[in-house]
């Protein structure tokens, strides 16, 4: 080949090499860009997965915290309810015990009331019987005393002679012998009355 042809051919070869280099560089850039895009996508995917995992962990922790809070609140509520139930049960037992004691007290008061009413009725009955017996005994005693006094009621004996003797003694205080005849008649009358009264029920009183 001539020199100029060689030079021309050299330019063609250089141009060919330059074109091939440019093509390879562009391909390399595309590959690098593709690799970078893939790496970025992979990193984004990993970051997304990590974020999702962290979100799940956070959500799980939040869920656990909420569950713990719910359990604590439920436990506190349960304790409060149990305390209220215990207080209500204690109050119910106290009320039941108080009602039982009150019923027992009422029964005791009723029993005492019936006992005292019975004792009062017996006392009134005994008082009435005692009053009746006392009244009967008093009336009987009064009747006996009255009958006794009626039986031994004094009847003056020879009252007319007795009056004459008193009159005679008053008229003759210094001459009592003047009344001896009346005195003799009076004694005779009295002796006769004694004999008659000994046969009868009434005993006359002699003066």
UniProtKB/TrEMBL annotation:
Tell me the keywords, alphabetical order: Coiled coil, Disulfide bond, Lipoprotein, Membrane, Mitochondrion, Mitochondrion inner membrane, Myristate
The domain of life is Eukaryota
- Gene Ontology terms, cellular component aspect? MICOS complex
Kindly give the Pfam families that the UniProt entry links to this protein. Answer: MIC19_MIC25
Question: Where is it mostly found?
Answer: mitochondrion
Q: Where in the cell is it found?
A: Mitochondrion inner membrane
Q: How does the protein associate with the membrane?
A: Lipid-anchor
Coiled coil stretches, renumbered: 34-122
- PANTHER family cross-referenced by the UniProt entry: COILED-COIL-HELIX-COILED-COIL-HELIX DOMAIN CONTAINING 6 (PTHR21588), MICOS COMPLEX SUBUNIT MIC19 (PTHR21588:SF18)
Name listed for the protein in its UniProt record: Coiled-coil-helix-coiled-coil-helix domain containing 3
Q: Which organism is it from?
A: Xenopus tropicalis
The gene name reads: chchd3
